[in-house]
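Section 5: illustrative case.
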């Protein structure tokens, strides 16, 4: 049995994994096409044909709608912009509560704040890391207006259940799908069970254009409101004879023709880009069989997991060593890992100090909600104790390298008793 790398042996994986090759000739051709056209953005910030952007932007929206069976797709310059636009489009206002997950990228929970909305955290379920419907139900008050659910790591939350819950209470449902393109629950794509779904095209995601985002919806009025918020809606209100001006203070969330052209090339190969990650994840998951105390990702019946991250839960009790030490030993073998994900969002200084917009504590001044530690124990357990993640979208992993990743887990697992003397290092 070869010596553990952390104890001075040779690592299983000797060279850093190469980055995932996301760009190809198709993207290069797309960029050249736009440069040659001379039109790098087709938007005007006033009412007219150009209010909806240039030919690449419109083609991307059409193609996105077709691939995702989405009646309406509205491109934006990031998922962050898309989430904010979604909150605005749904009419959220000062003091309105929006139930969010604490285990997601910060942008999800920030979005309500821009309209004076109050993020209210509900805990996740341990199986899929999505919002736990029972915890959501317990968080509903007369002030609740919406639920923002994140389909985290590439697996859907209990979307149909959350949608039914939302309808029962007269709430809307926003889906953050930044990590879950082509994931499904039943035969419905993530993004289309809620009222608005928001995808990311940033450089870290399955398919990307550097920066970018897409909102999808089945509702024509919502699509129009998203378009208005995207592009200086105040200038179009009169021409459109709008009676409800709520939240139509427009932004510039417009996507460039360059980004749209690259995104179109990426979308055309979305099945390939997603499929590569899925197959690698399946190899890794199969490789964990028989390793007691290491729980690879679950896939709920009838769902498709698309693996933005491949995650495991480590049970320190069963393993006999802490996650920190086990993960360090894996890292020494050349497995690039994260421990935890982002800290529970209510630990951010902004929530702790209840300071967001201006100096008077707005919008927290409109609410009694507090953001103490202990609010969401499952999330805290995952982040602080159990979860490790492999950034499956980031690397090019051949079959040989995939086997080496699995071998590294087995090597560390078999010799874990030798790790017991190693000191914990402070977690970052
Ligand atoms: C990446 C990500 C975002 C933000 O996407 P941008 O396009 O960078 O704004 C939002 N939510 C989640 C869950 C993400 O992973």
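Designed sequence:
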């Amino acid at each position: 049995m070869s010596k553990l790398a952390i104890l001075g042996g040779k690592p299983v994986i000797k060279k850093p994994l190469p980055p995932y090759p996301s760009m190809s000739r198709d993207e290069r051709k797309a960029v050249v096409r736009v440069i040659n056209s001379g039109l790098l953005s087709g938007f005007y910030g006033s009412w007219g044909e150009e209010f909806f952007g240039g030919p690449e932007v419109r083609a991307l929206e059409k193609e996105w709608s077709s691939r995702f069976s989405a009646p309406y797709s509205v491109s934006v310059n990031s998922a962050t912009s898309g989430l904010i636009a979604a909150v605005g489009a749904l009419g959220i206002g000062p003091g309105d509560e929006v139930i969010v997950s604490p285990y997601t990228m910060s942008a999800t929970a920030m979005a309500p704040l821009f309209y004076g909305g109050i993020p209210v955290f509900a805990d996740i379920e341990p199986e899929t890391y999505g919002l736990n419907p029972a915890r959501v139900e317990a968080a509903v008050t007369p002030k609740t207006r919406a639920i923002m659910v994140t389909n985290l790591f590439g697996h859907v939350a209990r979307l149909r259940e959350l949608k039914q819950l939302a309808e029962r209470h007269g709430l809307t449902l926003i889906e953050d799908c930044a990590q879950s393109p082509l994931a499904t629950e039943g035969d419905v794509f993530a993004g289309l069970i809620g009222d608005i779904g928001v995808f990311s095209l940033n450089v870290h995601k399955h398919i990307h254009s550097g920066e970018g985002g897409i909102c999808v919806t089945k509702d024509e009025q919502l699509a129009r409101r998203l378009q208005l918020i995207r592009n200086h809606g105040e200038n179009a209100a009169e021409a459109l004879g709008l009676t409800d001006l709520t939240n139509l203070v427009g932004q510039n969330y417009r996507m460039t023709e360059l980004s749209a052209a690259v995104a179109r090339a990426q979308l055309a190969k979305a099945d390939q880009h997603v499929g590569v990650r899925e197959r690698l994840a399946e190899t890794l998951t199969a490789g964990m069989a028989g390793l007691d105390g290491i729980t690879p990702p679950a896939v709920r019946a009838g769902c498709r997991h698309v693996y933005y991250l491949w995650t495991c839960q480590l049970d320190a009790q069963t393993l006999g060593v802490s996650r920190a030490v086990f993960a360090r030993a894996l890292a020494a073998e050349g497995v690039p890992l994260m421990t935890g994900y982002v800290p529970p969002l209510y630990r951010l200084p902004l929530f702790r100090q209840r300071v967001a917009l201006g100096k008077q504590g707005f919008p927290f001044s409109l609410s009694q909600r507090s953001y103490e530690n202990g609010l969401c124990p499952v999330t805290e357990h995952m982040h602080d104790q159990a979860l490790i993640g492999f950034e499956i979208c980031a690397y090019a992993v051949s079959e040989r390298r995939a086997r080496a990743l699995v071998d590294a887990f087995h090597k560390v697992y078999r010799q874990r008793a030798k790790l017991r003397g190693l000191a914990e290092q402070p977690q970052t």
